[in-house]
Design goal:
The protein has seven helices and five strands; from the N terminus they run βαβααβααβαβα. Strand 4 (119-122), helix 6 and strand 5 (160-162) form a beta-alpha-beta unit. It is an alpha/beta fold.
């Protein structure tokens, strides 16, 4: 099963993906893969985040995420976000001045490629914001991304399930979805 761990920033996605990844490596080391967060990879490559040059970053994000998905051949894939999350940030970011043609292209790619995942597990906003060099400190922006992500999942009719609780509880829920118990 291929699962995207989705949600707004600072909801525990990376922590959950790491916890599930460790469990999967222990239970089925040759049949599980983890896709780490693409945004951090792209920014580490030096792609710009300012408004005037952000379209280059969009193209690179699409490329890196799609390559990561295509390279995973295992039975179980857990991804720290997906293209659906990427689109949610684009739509929720009202100040972003991307050309309409680019946004339309991204929407079509996301609509087509969103079928890669069997399930989108949404992590709700349950914890306080953890600030870093990538996350927005604006709680209203966090809520807007969450709302937009849920709307996209409904709009594209994608299978999704909300996962609540501590990291341990969330990990157990994902392992149950995968049909694996340790």
């Amino acid at each position: 099963m291929k699962i995207s761990i989705s949600g707004s920033h600072s909801t525990g996605k990376t922590s959950l993906v790491e916890a599930v990844g460790l469990r999967l490596k222990g239970l089925c080391p040759n049949d599980a893969e983890v896709i780490s967060e693409t945004a951090r990879k792209v920014l580490a490559l030096g792609f710009p985040t300012n408004q005037d040059e952000f379209f280059e970053t969009c193209y690179k994000f699409l490329e890196v995420q799609l390559q990561a998905e295509r390279n995973c051949k295992s039975k179980h894939v857990i991804s720290d976000r997906s293209l659906v999350d990427f689109l949610a940030y684009i739509r929720a970011n009202k100040d972003m001045k991307l050309p309409k043609a680019l946004v339309s292209l991204i929407e079509e790619i996301v609509r087509w490629e969103s079928k890669y995942f069997d399930l989108y597990c949404i992590l709700p906003i349950e914890f306080g914001l953890v600030l870093d060099d990538l996350r927005s400190p604006d709680v209203e922006h966090q809520k807007a991304v969450d709302k937009t992500l849920r709307a996209i999942l409904r709009e594209f009719k994608l299978p999704h399930k909300q996962i609540r609780g501590t990291i341990e509880q969330r990990t157990e829920k994902i392992m149950a979805i995968l049909g694996l118990r340790s």
